[in-house]
Design a protein that fits this description.
Elements (H helix, E strand, L loop, with lengths): L4 E5 L6 H14 L6 E5 L2 H10 L6 E4 L16 H6 L4 E4 L2 H5 L5 H13 L3 E6 L3 H5 L3 H13 L10 E5 L13 H19 L1 H6 L2 E4 L7 H5 L6 E4 L6 H12 L2
Bound molecules: 2-phosphoglycolic acid (PGA).
The site of 2-phosphoglycolic acid has 13 residues, from β8.
Length: 252
């Protein structure tokens, strides 16, 4: 019922030339069947990647955007421009945006609304820091992040939202959450959606896991009933490992 979704977050890696050489080999060896794939390159590579992805093995997404459509916001990118380039997904509230660049729940909430207004899908990233998990505050943190960004979103608009649960302590560290740890949080997120947006929305809603996903742990994470896909950083930069994760997910 929920089509698995696998998203590559290239972060600040790969200029135009490297992006194109990745995409050329990637589309030769990837068979995405019954799986949706999205690649989020840096802004500067979006256009070239979009025009090179000819056989539609993947769609393109952006890693961030501003909440206004235009104006005096030096260095920012409007969701309108992303739509014009053919982007269909936008990552929002990634932990690096929250913790390195100080993005607040209020800004993220405005961004979610701005992205939905353009008819794009918002990938809302949530997750706890290590000390929060150790203090037993995992759900308190995630529940507050969901409340801040989704309380004003109508049940109908939830079809254009995906949540990515990414524990901060698992991102880029090589320490992934075990499938059981991730599943526990995913179940709580689905329960929150059920209680706040209704059973039908919750049942069709996709919740991704991210944080040190690689070709060895991807399949066991994906087997959990409430893990509907993956948001992948490091392992999405290597054609072989990213393709293998997708090809494996296609036959699950
Ligand atoms: P990672 O990054 O797979 O390198 O841990 C995931 C992310 O930040 O989205």
């Amino acid at each position: 019922m929920r089509i698995p979704l696998i998203i590559a977050n290239w972060k600040m890696n790969y200029g135009v030339e490297e992006s194109l050489s990745f995409v050329e080999s990637f589309q030769e060896i990837t068979r995405a069947e019954k799986v949706e794939v999205v690649i989020c390159p840096p802004f500067t590579s979006l256009d070239s990647v979009a025009s090179t992805l000819k056989n539609k093995v993947a769609r393109i997404g952006a890693q961030n955007c501003h909440f206004e459509e235009s104006g005096a916001f030096t260095g920012e990118i409007s969701p309108v421009f992303l739509k014009e380039l053919g982007c269909t997904f936008v990552l929002l509230g990634h932990s690096e945006r929250r913790h390195i660049f100080g993005e607040t729940d209020e800004q993220i909430s405005k961004k979610v609304k701005a992205v939905l207004k353009q008819g794009l899908t918002a990938v809302l990233c949530v997750g706890e820091k290590l000390e929060e998990r150790e203090d037993g505050k995992t759900w308190q943190v995630i529940g507050a992040q969901l409340q801040a960004s989704l309380s004003v979103i109508s049940p109908a608009d939830m079809k254009n939202i995906v949540i990515a649960y990414e524990p901060v302590w698992a991102i880029g560290t090589g320490k992934n959450a075990t499938p059981a740890m991730a599943e526990e949080v995913h179940q709580s997120i689905r329960k929150w959606i059920d209680e706040n947006k209704g059973r039908t929305v919750a049942e069709g809603f996709r919740i991704l896991y991210g944080g040190s996903v690689n070709q060895d742990n991807a399949a066991s994470l994906m087997k959990e009933p409430d893990i509907d896909g993956l948001l992948i950083g490091g392992a999405s930069l290597k054609v072989d490992s990213f393709s293998r994760i997708i090809n494996d997910a296609s036959i699950l």
